[in-house]
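We now fix the convention by which a protein and its fold are recorded. Think of the row as the fold of the chain written in a discrete alphabet. Here is one such record, which you should read through line by line.
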Amino acid sequence: MNKFDYESLKLFYIGKQKVEGQTIPLVYQNKDLLTHAAIIGMTGSGKTGLGITLLEEAAIDNIPSIIIDPKGDMTNLLLTFPNLETSDFEPWIEEQEAINSGKTIQEFAQSRAELWKKGLEQDFQEVSRIEKLKNSADFTIYTPGSDAGVQISILSSFKAPSKEVLEDNELLVSLINSTVSSILALIEEKADSNSKESILLSSIFLNLFKEQKDLTLEELINLIVTPPFSKIGVFDLETFFSQSDRLKLALKLNGIIANPAFSTWIEGETLEISKLLYDENGKAKVSIFSIAHLNDNQRMFFVTILLNQMVAWMRRQEGTTSLKALLYMDEIFGYFPPSSNPPSKQPMLTLLKQARSFGIGIVLSTQNPVDIDYKGLANIGTWFLGRLQTKQDIDRVIDGLSSASEGINKAQISNLLSNLEKRNFILNNINNDGIKVFETRWALSYLKGPIPKEGIKRLMSEKKSAKNLQKSVSTQDNTNINITKSISKPILTSNINELYIYNSQNSNYYLQPYLLCSGSIRFVNTSKAIDVEESIKYKFYLDENMKEINFDEKEELLLETKFEIKEKANSNYYEVPNFIKNEKDLKQIEKDFTDYLYRNSKLSLYKIDSLKLSSKQDETLQDFRIRVQDRLNEKVDLELEKIKAKYQKENDSLDLKLSKLYERLDKEKREANASTTDTILNIGTSILGAFFGKGTVSSNLGKVASGAKGANKILKERGDVKVVENEIAFLIEQKNSLQTTLENEVSKIKEQNSISNLQIEEIFINPKRSDIFNVKLELLWQEQ
């Protein structure tokens, strides 16, 4: 086993520190991020490298991350080259960069490869850690509002919140207010919560959400013109906000979404937090939202929507004492200011106050320490402070740190900040005593700097190709079927209701008929506390020559799909089968569809008998897996505490013996003869010290140097010195053996509590026939 296998003990290896003239690893307990962290430092301080280091360690520990990347630096997490070949680096070398160094691109790429190999080896890391990182998590770059990376849709962003949020009126109002503010900012309207625009939009959201109805941007525009209420406060709607003024507001918002460029905002994967954290196999995901290409209003809009989704998802989770996910924001400047309230501020403040109870750690980074609300950051427990540009910056940071941590030495921190070198940081962690100064470890990822759109396209090309292929296959139905076209609309003798979907603005429309079947199904199981109602909507392709409907060939429609009730001019129609024209046939189809729902409908639930866990009625498989992983993480942490208690006495005893032996050893001879031994001892001690919660170096061994300085030369003979050195070497071997034992036991515990060992069983609840109702048939004409 690798002697410095940090992750086996659930430790993050984040840097190196000097202890009595020796360089040893600085390790950090990953659960300390539950009290959140801030990274503050000027440009060039190395804060991006430190942030990437934390995220690399989390990925290796199978802890997922959601990353907001306003500048484009965090995309470097995908530049992982396990073989460190020159050809790996070449595509990412800028020509000007090579010219400035007096090298060709290939020569410069080779120098980068050699530099990375050397940097890793000098920092107590093996190159194999890159492969471990690459295989530990699934890395994806999302680009909202752009097709450079994987596209993300915001259509689902206005889904009605969960009942946990709806029952917390203060939280509900907070989420609605921040959402409304971000929408108004998008159209450059003043985001004042007392403005009539803000009150109107908030009232619309509140009205629909309390009825647990979802809302899309298109619906919002229509509801601005015709709200679902006639009064606001004591005034009637027209007095408070006239229709002509409401129309102006609706036109502004419509101008945004009518822009062809806006299509990239509504295509792609849904903004669903659980799917952004783990894949279907339970593998951790690192989801990077690159927003450097957006303007300021668009960034604020998206960041607010994402944070609100994070809050809503968080409140559906059970509490946990283990770190289960990270939310990282690379530049918080402008999103969390001290004297104003941008839309992003309130959800971020909610997360800082509540997220730790749900196992979510937040890491915020900035190079602009003056424009941050430090009172809001009082909930942060770990501060990483790098080089700062001005005395004002230093004073502001110290004041902020003072409000978050009691008893800090302001003069000491001020002096340290004034003399920090690049890539060096002050670490103040409320979970440990004292402050530490350390140099960040060498990143496993290649730190190229911001990756432009073309680079993101290259990195995401395989993922996008796979998604496009899947989309192409799913939409390939019936495209080659030849049917007779009826230029005029077929004559219907039945009373079936007709609906329309137009997808374009053409001079002529060709409409394909579908049978639209909808209904409601109720699933009840008293023993499992299940009582849930589902609405379904399917469409069935219609061919003139069809004799009957095959219900197994259904296509599911989104419940929020909008239909038109009037046909447009220049509409051309395909012919329909005869049974659509016959009322009696339609009645039989309705009965057959009801029978089909009764035979084939079921509510899927999941359970793991060994943990006595079952999914809840509104819980997806992804969320159930996350809850299972939380339980397993808690079991691991509980077992770790038992191990710590079991081996604490042995570790302290070895530390005490070593301390006494060093005090006996002549300082000069110790320096001459045992320097290698010292280094090995302190590396092992730093790891074990962090594991047992003592910081980096044991409290006893921390006193060794001062004790040795004043020691008398009581060991005159060379032979006596050798005996003591042998005793020290023997105890160091015992320390190494203890560490190996701990690593083996922790690895065994983690293996025993791996979700891959568990069988998730799917169970079903079937409806009664009387629980199928509101069945309805309609004829849908859809533009081809």
Confidence is low (pLDDT under 50) at residues 473-484, 670-677, 696-718.
